[in-house]
Amino acid sequence: MAGLKGEFNVVELVIAVSALLISMYVFLSFEHLKTSSWHIIKTTLYYLDLFESLSHAKILDSYVFGERSNLPTVLLGLSINPNRIRIACNCTNETQELIISLFESEINNKKINIDFCLTTIESFNYCIASSDVLVIDILPNDQYINILKKVLDNDIGLLLYADASAFTNNNVLTNIFGISRVATVYSNRNISFSSTLSTYREEIFKNFYEIYKNFYGINLYLQAFTTFILPNCVFNVRGEIKIFNKSYSYSFVVCNSTNVVIDFNRNGNFEGHEYRTVGNRLSFSGFPINVTLKKIARTGIWIKFDKHNLILSDITKNVRINVVDGDRSRVVLNSTDGLPALVTNTTYSRVAWLQNFNHDVSDDKKVVLLSTLIWLSEREIQIPSIFSYIYFDLKDSYFVYKIEVPP
Amino acid sequence: MSKSQISIEFLTTTLVFLSLIGYLLFQLYDFKIAAIDSLNVELTNLELYKVSEILIKDSGHPIHWNPNNVKRIGLAAGFHSKNYLNYTKINYLRIINPSTRDCSNITHYLGSDIIVSMNITKIYPTQQVLFNCTTREIRLGNVSFERYAFSDDNSIVEIKIYGRPKRRV
User: Phi and psi at residue A324, in whole multiples of 5°?
Assistant: First the structure.
């Protein structure tokens, strides 16, 4: 350059700075931050503990040497499957509380563990990168579309849990979720699983079926947190069942490890009501939904929705949502007048929009949310199929065990 | 151009340099926050893991401790008794730490101050809560650790510990 000695060459500097910026981006980018492996360690520990405990209890030995009937029952009874969903949440306190209320729920007698971190979607940060599902409860602007696509590129499921009446059509809504808002309409119809799969496509049907299957398989945990003394009862804790989106709920009192009393007529008086025990079906007069009492503990109960019931809702405002590609088979839940409430999309990865009804969420809708989260999390719900263990007790010999856990 | 004038090239390079420094500082700050949070969670997981190992693989001190002479809590029945617990020691926990709303006695004897809740439940062949205490409400961001072990009353128990990440770095 024909300048003075000591002057910087601007062109060279710009090139150098650009190279530096690119290299800093590469080194500092969070996607290169190694995610924690504690969930793998915990899984391994679960199985090691299981084998150690079963060995001490002589159950493992007796299974290997002939008593073939006991082990599978014990395994199921232990609830030891480390199903773990890692959720990143860009959401309000209400949504956080809702997701917390899903903790301790079970499927096939196995607890669904939920790891949770709060995040923003300003950048693809550590919380998002190490999760299975990103939950957002407000429709993002178009400026976030690249972040969301990056989330999907990394095989992370995406759930928009938001009230569609607040939607303004944008690229995020149409491109990522494959839906658009048409109009707000008023109705008070029931919501159920969509029964019209107009075009049979294996993938779509599978997605639909997985959510459907999860919904009717989940045992929802209802915590009992207030003391309520009943004669001849030991645990004496009271909780609420809120199956329907009504302004009221049904109280129950956990009496002991086998019995629960439910205030079916909601008069606050539990006397005179029959005890209900595990396996009993709970019917609520005037409502076609039945639930089954699946499990009782000192701190609460687990309930499961019986198949082929409608999910009821007293929604007063529904939003007419269009499926942009016209594929109605993506609609998993809709009201009887055809308004979607849960729409999936698998164009990029696993994506779903679920209507947030903005008021006290009933237990059936909690199960819908959890079913959808399980579907979105995809791989992590799978349990290891083979695990080996060497039992070495410093005695006569050692045994090598291998166990295959069916999915 | 006189000697005292600032050249446009100098101005440009200074601006580019300052922008670069600003960008890097912002990136480093953003990175530091995320890294510190995740590091604290890692450390909490590590500490809970160590506590859980002590509970199920160590017999405590003295070996046959009781509430009157305990110096360190360990639930294992004896030496080399990993995942093999002494049922009497489990029951002693309720005497050492009678309050269900405060785990401070337990954490004192375990030498850990991050534990906010601890539950020991018999899960096989029947379900029964053997011990529980909760110092603080379990919140988002708390780390949990679950372990399973055989108890010498012929049952299998679940030990669940919740820890609260504390800012250490």
Answer: -65, -30
A chain contacts of residue B37, beta-carbon cutoff 8 Å: 126
| Count of structural domains, chain A | 2
Rounded-to-integer distance, Cα A219 and Cα A99, Å: 15
B82 touches chain A (CB under 8 A): yes
The answer to whether residue A287 neighbours chain B at the CB level (below 8 Å) is no
Q: How confident is the model at residue A302 (pLDDT cuts 50, 70, 90)?
A: very high
CATH number of the domain at A161, please. 3.40.50.880
Q: What is the dihedral of CA A179, A96, A253, A262, to 10 degrees?
A: -10
Closest CA to A63 of A392, A395, A285, A391: A391
> d(Cα A131, Cα A385) in Å, to the nearest integer?
22
A15 class by beta-carbon count within 10 Å (0-12 exposed, 13-18 middle, 19+ buried) = exposed
Residues A120-176 have pLDDT tens digits of 998 888 788 878 899 999 999 999 999 998 888 777 899 999 988 888 899 999 999
**Contact check, Cβ <8 Å, B27/A50:** no
A227 shares a domain with A120: no
> Is residue A244 domain-shared with residue A368, that is, in the same domain?
no
Q: How far apart are CA B79 and CA B84, in angstroms?
A: 10
Report yes or no on A40 lying in a domain. Answer: no
B160 inside 8 A of chain A by CB: no
This prediction's pTM: 0.59
Instruction: Report CB contact under 8 Å: A36, B41.
Output: yes
Contact list in B for residue A130 (CB cut-off 8 A) is 38
Give the best residue of A56, A85, A92, A110 to mutate against chain B (max B CB count within 10 A).
Answer: A56
Q: The domain containing residue A120 runs over which residues? A: 83-212+319-381
Name the residue with tokens 């006189």.
Answer: B2
- By the CB < 8 Å criterion, does A138 face chain B? no
Do A286 and A193 belong together in one domain? no
In a domain, A313, yes or no: no
ipTM: 0.80
Q: Which whole-number Å values give the CA distances from A202 to A197, A224, A351, in the listed order?
A: 11, 42, 17
Examine the domain organization and report whether A324 and A199 are in the same domain: yes
**For residue A184, is it within any domain?**
yes
Question: Does residue A40 sit at the B interface (CB-CB below 8 Å)?
Answer: no
Say yes or no: A127 contacts chain B, CB-CB below 8 A: yes
Helix/strand/coil for A205: helix
- Which amino acid is present at A121? I
